[in-house]
Amino acid sequence: MGAIEKPYGYYPEPEEIDAWTDQVWADAHTRTGRGELLPDAGWTNNFGDYQARTQIVRFEYEGLPTFYGVWQAAISGPAPLVVHLPGYGGELSVHPPMAACGFNVLNLSPMGYWTPKGFDESKRDKATGSWPVLMDTLRSDRKHGYADWLQCVVCAVEWAWTQGSVIPGRVSFYGTSQGGGTSILAGSLFRDHGIRCIASDEPYLTDYPLSNLRGAYVILTYAVREQSSPEEAYRKLAVVDTLAHTHRIHCPILVTTGTADVVCPPETVRKLDARLDGTHAMVTFEGRTHGYAFEFARLAETWLKMYA
């Protein structure tokens, strides 16, 4: 089994994944706009951590929805940039311990699902009740959805590289669930553009067929209904299946899973790990269910200290 082997016969060839990823990168660089650090007014001050150095940043780029992040600048710099990506709920969180490690931390919620006033419920998909990013990927035949989501990431990272506390040209990604899966996709996107390492917790967007439409993959039942066959749905969505990007992942990568995770089944994560080359580690937590966990936060800190 090699990293360049296709996960399934109806998945795109690695060269097709490369072309899609290159197109996302190129499209992101057609966007004009800016990031703007906002004053404290209009949101819950420091999310209850009154001594944390946090600021909301608003991103506005032509052709993309307005979206937000929380910026935690390093106390002294220049220092590395690490980017936390959200779960499928679109939630935005802060990580004072990670900032205390000496990193610049950018916590992102692409696509504007989260705002300083709360979630923008008008953006939810009417058919599924969830955020539409996965279904929009399918319905647009891969031209939008996660293509736009990842362009938000590129724009935000390149804004962060302009900040005085940041070492430009290098970035690492971490997250849980969708955040774990998209950390891998973002690492693939930044393969030749400064990626240092990835920490991926319980990665969603991993091996759709093996999921058998369980847990978080139940949304794929809607995807399958809208296509002529399950294989057609999987073929179109494969551009955002982490398995299809393993041939592009050459940086150090940590993946984790829990044996009691019924949302992102552990066998899908094991399949991913088996296809990774280079420096990689997998940690399995016995009895752990799905969701943000203290253990991963400590592991991610250590991984980023070693490689970011």
Which helices and strands appear, and what pairs or packs with what?
Blueprint: H1 14-28, E1 33-37, E2 55-61, E3 67-72, E4 81-85, H2 96-100, E5 104-109, E6 114-115, E7 118-119, H3 133-139, H4 146-160, E8 171-176, H5 178-189, E9 195-201, H6 208-211, H7 220-225, H8 230-237, E10 253-258, H9 266-274, E11 280-285, H10 294-307
Parallel strand pairs: 4-5, 4-8, 8-9, 9-10, 10-11
Antiparallel strand pairs: 1-2, 2-3, 3-5, 6-7
Helix pairs in contact: 1-4
Counting structural domains, the number is 1
Strand percentage: 15-25%
Spatial order of the strands forming the largest sheet: 1-2-3-5-4-8-9-10-11
What is the oligomeric state here? single chain
In CATH, the architecture is 3-Layer(aba) Sandwich
Please identify which CATH superfamily we are dealing with: Alpha/Beta hydrolase fold, catalytic domain
Could you name the CATH topology? Rossmann fold
Rg, rounded, reads 18 Å
Largest sheet: 9 strands, mixed
The whole-number mean of residue pLDDT values reads: 91
Which CATH class is shown?
Alpha Beta
End-to-end gap: 29 Å
Shape: globular
What is the count of DSSP helices, taking H or I runs of 4+ residues? Answer: 10
Encode the helix/strand succession as letters.
HEEEEHEEEHHEHEHHHEHEH
Instruction: Indicate the structural class.
Output: alpha/beta
What's the total count of β strands? 11
